[in-house]
Specification:
This protein is an alpha/beta fold. 45% of the residues lie in helices and 14% in strands. It is globular and about 65 Å long. 47% of the residues are buried. The structure holds uridine-diphosphate-N-acetylglucosamine. Uridine-diphosphate-N-acetylglucosamine (UD1) binds next to helix 1, helix 12 and helix 13. The site of uridine-diphosphate-N-acetylglucosamine has 24 residues, from helix 1, helix 12 and helix 13. Its EC number is 2.4.1.227. Cell wall formation. Catalyzes the transfer of a GlcNAc subunit on undecaprenyl-pyrophosphoryl-MurNAc-pentapeptide (lipid intermediate I) to form undecaprenyl-pyrophosphoryl-MurNAc-(pentapeptide)GlcNAc (lipid intermediate II). This is UDP-N-acetylglucosamine--N-acetylmuramyl-(pentapeptide) pyrophosphoryl-undecaprenol N-acetylglucosamine transferase. Belongs to the glycosyltransferase 28 family. MurG subfamily.
Length: 391
């Protein structure tokens, strides 16, 4: 790292790229906002251009947050053990998109002339990151997961400065980039850390919430998870005798779950709140939750550890490099979570949740271990890396 003198703020121009999922998009937005706040606190300004895929989550997030956005062509290479399948029509089309995206990104980078480029992963980060290197602009890559994603691996080899979310990532970096890597943690949206439990039930319209009972928040990520939904559905008659349940299930699953909830005893059903997606109420819902049943994507883990929540993780088995299982195991090994790493069924989900509801001391012990793993200052650390790279 350079000296703190090198990080002194000045007016800056930033290109940010990354997206595809919330896991790549929200850390980018959080870093932009933190960098802007740091610069403005010293009377300086930040000009930002977000370069992403057209009609994407990152486009919606950038534009709703008043950040200028430009789209470039991207190509997702579908990996397969069978080399014949690699030459699929979809892959061939996507491969031709990559050079087109690099050319588009190169012209955007050269016109905008950023002081620094931040890439947070996802396929779109590849053309933009490569263009940054071609135009000799400093490139910082932020990785949310323990193992580098494919896009970030390509950019690490192209000479990016790497910021990682966990110390254990450093040993897994490509040769040559380990020495310069910085552990920042995974930036968490600041509003997530300042929720108010007493606002949650009102914000959700959860009129039957019983304040005498603990609350379980179930989340399968933005799309929802059929595996989590089905197992939770099957233990609901038991769960609702002990807790309120807020269940975020994804848009595709909400109708079927609503129908099956009609079979619940009405006295229990009033403690159940089902929703496709939790939007601006998310911080309050997290503040209210005593126990969380969740996938173990990097973004969710960063939030739950920063807050110190007792969680039961059900990893997505098909996540890249099985990283969700790795994340969950890592926390379970230090008593910072409960992880269901093999087959998941209603019986073992109930067995995992039961001690957390029965004994507040058990869940407090897990919550406090989780909090010790959290890095609530990750955005500020990433800002330090960006300011150093820009100088
Ligand atoms: C399917 C897939 O590819 N998953 C990957 C994706 O995760 P993905 O983006 O699906 O999940 P993450 O846990 O990283 O982030 C989800 C984000 O959405 C928010 N949220 C979720 C539900 C909701 O109703 N409201 C809401 O705001 C969560 O609070 C969190 O901030 O990128 C992550 C980071 O690279 C990886 O670790 C995951 O393995």
């Amino acid at each position: 790292m350079n000296s703190t003198h090198d990080r002194s703020p000045r007016n800056l121009r930033l290109i940010v790229t990354g997206g595809g999922t919330g896991g790549h998009t929200y850390p980018a937005l959080t870093a932009v906002n933190a960098l802007r706040a740091r610069l403005e606190s010293t009377g300086h300004s930040l000009e930002v251009l977000w370069v992403g895929a057209a009609d994407s989550l990152e486009q919606r997030v950038a534009t709703t947050n008043g950040i200028a956005f430009e789209a470039v062509a991207t190509g997702k290479i579908r990996r397969s053990k069978n080399p014949i399948k690699m030459v699929s029509p979809a892959n061939v089309k996507d491969m031709t998109n990559v050079p087109r995206g690099v050319a588009q990104a190169r012209s955007l980078v050269s016109d905008f002339a950023p002081d620094v480029v931040l890439a947070t992963g996802g396929y779109v980060a590849v053309p933009v990151g490569l263009a940054a290197r071609m135009c000799r602009r400093p490139l910082v890559v932020h990785e949310q997961t323990v193992r580098l994603g494919l896009a970030n691996k390509v950019l690490a080899r192209a000479g990016a400065q790497i910021a990682v979310s966990a110390q254990s990532s450093v040993a897994l970096l490509p040769e040559g980039s380990q020495g310069t890597a910085v552990v920042t943690g995974n930036p968490v949206r600041p509003e997530v850390l300042t929720g108010q439990p007493q606002r949650a039930a009102e914000g959700l319209g959860f009129t039957g919430h019983d304040p005498e009972l603990p609350t379980v928040y179930v989340t399968g990520g933005a799309q929802g998870s059929a595996q989590i939904n089905n197992n939770v559905r099957d233990i609901l008659p038991w769960l609702l005798t002990r807790a309120n349940v807020v269940h975020q299930c994804g848009a595709n699953n909400v109708d079927a779950l609503r129908e099956s909830a009609q079979g619940l005893d009405p006295a229990l059903a009033q403690r159940y709140h089902l929703t496709a997606f939790v939007g601006p109420e998310l911080p309050d819902v997290l503040a209210l939750a005593d126990v969380v049943i969740s996938r173990s994507g990097a973004g969710t883990i960063a939030e739950l550890t920063a807050l110190g929540k007792a969680a039961v993780f059900i990893p997505l088995a098909s996540s890249a490099g099985n990283e969700q299982a790795h994340n969950a195991r890592h926390l379970q090994e230090s008593g910072a979570a409960v992880a269901l790493l093999g087959e998941v069924n209603p019986a073992n989900l109930q067995a995992a949740v039961e001690p957390l509801l029965a004994d507040p001391a058990t869940r407090d012990a897990i919550a406090s271990q989780a909090r010790s793993k959290g890095m609530p200052d990750a955005a500020e650390r990433l800002v330090d890396v960006l300011l150093t790279a820009a100088n």
